[in-house]
Each structure stands twice: as C-alpha cells, then as structure tokens.
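Record 1 of the preview.
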Amino acid sequence: MPKKITFTAEQEHAFEKACRDAGLRLTHQRLEIYRELATSTDHPSAETLHQRLRRGNPSLSLDTVYRTLAVFAHHGIINRVETVESQSRFETKRMRHHHLICSRCKEIIDFQWHHIDEAPLPEETRSWGRIDNKNAVIYGVCNKCLVSEKTS
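->
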C-alpha cells in the first residue's frame, strides 16, 4: 500500500467550497473519493481508487468513481496526470509541480522545477492563443527498476 498523507479539516473545507463554487452537490461518495485521492501519494487510477474505496463502501460502483473523477477534473478540483499509458491517473491540486514517470513500473513522482515554471515560452507559442498551464513530464526508469534489472 502506498504512503498516505493526512486529510485536514482545511482540505475538506476547501473541497466543500470548490464544490459549491462549481455548483456541485456535496455527497458522501464525492467526499470519500476526494478524500482517498487527497491522501494518496501514488497518483492512482480510477480502478485503483475504486478498489481502495470498496473496502469501506462495497456498493460504490466503478462507473461512479469514473464519473466523479471526470466531473472533478472538468471543474478543476483535481488534476488528470497526463501519461503515455492508456489509463488516466489523478491527483488533487497541490503546489505547482511536474512529474517523473517510470516507464517500467509506472510509478509517478512529483518534483518542482522553478526554471521551467518561470521560463518564458518560445516566441512561436505566443500567437497560438491563451496558454493556461505548462507542465514537464519526464519519462525514464526509476532506481528500483534499474536495481531489479541488474539483479535478475
């Protein structure tokens, strides 16, 4: 099981406000899905979230998890992590960061890169339209996979 972080009262209040601002009803299932995502450090997929949440709520459907994540992402409450794999991964909004993704085990690690955040975009992007976000996603092989590769 991946490392968990604490879900604070402040995070819950911020989530409730984000739902109100988006015109979304705050349901028990939405709160539980958000709480599980907010306490996860592994950028889980909808399927992974569903498996974790079913332990305490066996009637929760995978379809509900998918639809809830899509609604949250649409309203900017969570982020969909862009990967080359066919399965979307998710995270709650935290401080500005980028991602390292292992191409073997699919682990995703957050990192900060202020040079990218502060760098001006190339000239050719300025006439394109409005840029809302810029992210760096770096793919490679993590140390755990490199070590297991050498020992096999």
